[in-house]
Design a protein that fits this description.
The protein is mostly helical. It is 59% helix and 4% strand. It is elongated.
Length: 208
């Protein structure tokens, strides 16, 4: 039996997916901005050396935050910006890149409890000579966990739904190719914007 050709997606099936465009984009942008912000905050804090000179004035955000998490969150944020102004296969590739960056951020959050406490203890010892008695995860870390889940969820939704989302029209593309018959009116004057600007650049009056 001959294989049946793939049926095109019906408009009524595409409509619900198109309605997800605004909410998913808003969630993605907001969660990526939140993820970038909390990644610059201290995810780990130490106790036991508050009276040691130099520890009280030391900024824990310098050594207990996640610069990698900040960078990955900005990559996700940039992907959302590019996704809004592109279309076709390139748009889907950007959505896939956003998923990879979101996975990287989530991995950074998961790995932080195994690396940041020791890093904080070592940096305090090097900078002040003090030894911390204990370390603990801060509220910023748990907020980063929430941000990571939202970033990953919105990125996966974008990759799955991007085919059905509205795209920027071709009117915003740079003009290419030869002029068409509709570029001039009955008197031969240019009507297309690019032709009008070309005439002005050449010192000609496009309205003459």
């Amino acid at each position: 039996m001959a294989e049946q050709p793939e049926q095109p997606e019906r408009p009524e099936r595409r409509a619900p997916a198109r309605r997800t465009f605004g909410p998913v984009v808003l969630l993605g942008v907001a969660s990526a901005a939140l993820a970038a912000w909390v990644a610059s905050k201290p995810w780990v804090d130490g106790t036991g050396a508050e009276t040691t000179p130099g520890v009280a004035t030391m900024d824990p955000g310098e050594v207990a935050s996640s610069p990698l998490g900040t960078a990955l969150a900005f990559v996700v944020l940039a992907c959302w910006g590019v996704l809004l102004v592109t279309r076709g296969r390139f748009r889907r590739a950007i959505a896939a890149l956003g998923v990879l960056a979101a996975l990287g951020y989530a991995a950074t959050v998961v790995w932080a409890p195994f690396t940041l406490p020791d890093h904080l203890v070592e940096q305090v010892r090097r900078r002040t000579g003090a030894t911390l008695d204990d370390t603990a995860l801060t509220g910023w870390f748990w907020l980063a966990c929430l941000a990571g889940l939202l970033v990953l969820a919105s990125a996966v939704l974008a990759l799955r739904l991007v085919r059905s989302w509205p795209e920027m029209g071709t009117r915003y593309d740079a003009p290419t190719g030869a002029p068409t018959s509709g570029d001039t009116d009955a008197t031969g004057r240019p009507t297309d914007n690019i032709d009008i600007w070309k005439a002005l650049d050449e010192g000609r009056d496009p309205t003459a």
